[in-house]
Amino acid sequence: MAALKVLISFAGLKNKLALSMKSTYSVAELYEKKPIGEFVTLSGWVRTFRSNRFISLNDGSTVSNFQCVLDYEKFDDTLLKKINTGTCLTLKGKIAESPGKGQPIEMLVESVEILGESDPEKYPLQPKKHSLEFLREIAHLRPRTSTFGAVFRVRHHLAYAIHDFFNRNGFFYIHSPIITASDAEGAGELFNVSTLDKKNIPLTEGGEVDFSKDFFGKEANLTVSGQLEAELLAMGLGKVYTFGPTFRAENSNTTRHLAEFWMIEPEMAFYQLSDNMELAEEFLKYIISYALEKASEDLRFLDQRLADEEKSKPTDQRSMPLLEKLHFVLENPFARITYTDAIDILLNSSYHRKKKFQFPVEWGIDLQSEHERYLVEKHFKTPVIITDYPAAIKAFYMRLNEDEKTVRAMDILVPGIGEIVGGSQREERYDVLLQKIKQFGISEHSLWWYLDTRKFGTCPHSGFGLGFERLVQFVTGMSNIRDVIPFPRTPGNCEF
Prior knowledge:
Layout: H1 2-22, H2 27-33, E1 39-50, E2 54-58, E3 66-69, H3 77-80, E4 88-97, E5 105-116, H4 132-137, H5 146-168, E6 172-173, E7 179-180, E8 192-193, E9 220-222, H6 227-237, E10 239-247, E11 260-269, H7 273-294, H8 296-310, H9 322-331, E12 335-338, H10 339-347, H11 350-353, H12 369-380, E13 384-390, E14 406-414, E15 418-425, H13 430-439, H14 448-455, E16 461-467, H15 468-476
Helix pairs in contact: 5-7, 5-8, 5-15
């Protein structure tokens, strides 16, 4: 009987908690549920305060602000003077239909609690248009703006969709190391990791740094890719993917490069190149579709933002509208061509004949963004997958074709940016892989563990890589990759 009383008491407490919690809403929930006549609690940051009466509040849950109306005669002037742009408030009041045209509902405020004041003379985010360059300098505050709130919410939905897609398709999420002794791409643009005393660096007899005295007993660096490690896991688990930070010490100040960025890298045992292409197309379409469904309001806002930005450009230099571009990828089957066919198309194009391409076109080149965009936007008018690239311009781990000139590589090209996905069937033959490692000047000893997987139960396998920030940039329409990651790391910039 006593136990029953405890259960009844606990159930009653849960009901009370549910009722009390129900009265606290986010802005997004208020617009979704429209609890007209209900007394609610709402917290957020002031965007504007007009006529000592209308507070425009935003809590980050949506791009839309919420109008809260107070009767200034009921509140002390000292309190009202503290309500400035940037001030953090908790408001309580009744939800009512709004007589104005700007919003369907509003709050009739009955109490105001100031959680954090904001000096209007010092707060840098005043209600006016700020340049993206200025906002990068105050990256700790820019999530409070409409643009960056929208971008980072879309980023969240894309990340969730990636995990959801792979989980639904039988993949296992694995964590590749951040610190590694290998250079997956062989590019050499690495951030070294060391605990050696910089004032007294040990040297070998030959005068080089003696890494045997370092923490790991060898030279170590931050990873440039989790691919090689993912391949090892695929050889035991079948289908795996990594989704984590990667690093490139590339001294490049462009709108397309970061020193720290996130990569999605699936690896699949028993997949041929054709299987790889099918998966990559399905993957891209799924996550874009998910974003369009879950972040529709933010994407409409960003679509309008891009349209406003494009108005200042000549008509022939304007990019495809954002939502149109996303539906372009969703609704068109991806064209599939070989690299050789792509070069022929470019050479026979009016752009080439009229010398409109900035970079030369010939077999063996690494295609430039302008070439890729021509194929997508002018020739095929659909996303394009290019396969069978020259071996000389691709990484050592890609499977060599029978012609011994090309490899089973594939790149997916989309409008606006060109390449968004790069992948290949991996070289599973031990002798061929060993020969390619030597050709690339990579130490056989440093990749002994990678070669082992080709000795013991090797099989065809494939995978691809997608830079997450490149994806976010594509889906949000932001022109600079530094504006799609909360705290960009670039040459000379490591703030926050």
